[in-house]
Amino acid sequence: MPKRSLLAQQVDALLYEEPHLMSNLANAAALLNDSLADVNWVGFYLYDEAKDELYLGPFQGKVACMHIANGKGVVGTAFAEQKTQIVADVHQFAGHIACDAATNAEIVVPLTVNGHKIGVLDIDSLKFDRFNTTDQAELEEFVAALGKHI
């Protein structure tokens, strides 16, 4: 069995036997915000199937957009495609939704549990080209570990 990342191990330990969705997402956002360098926003957008949009969930950072349409912006694109989006310069992303105009880079990871689309993990940075495929692998593993607790 391959060695798990420290973040995946930490989220497993932090959320051990805790069943509450919002509490778990809040602590997961805080864990990432405290652990990752050069990030200015960490949080979750959760899917509302009835409205076909994502709404703001637990986060760490400045105030944020409260609703994002499925398929719109980096968040909506990651959710619609169910594929992690790494954007080196958000200002070059067609249809980018600027919740914080100071943000320059972003990574968004879909959050799916047992085939059920829950939402996304969204992380922003003031630093251009902040995120890479190593971050992607670690955050996808983190989200998989988190999924066992929601």
TrEMBL record:
It comes from the Bacteria. InterPro entries: GAF, GAF-like_dom_sf, Phosphatase_reg/MetRdx. It comes from Loigolactobacillus jiayinensis. This is GAF domain-containing protein. Residues 42-147 form the GAF domain. Gene3D superfamilies: 3.30.450.40. Belongs to the free Met sulfoxide reductase family.
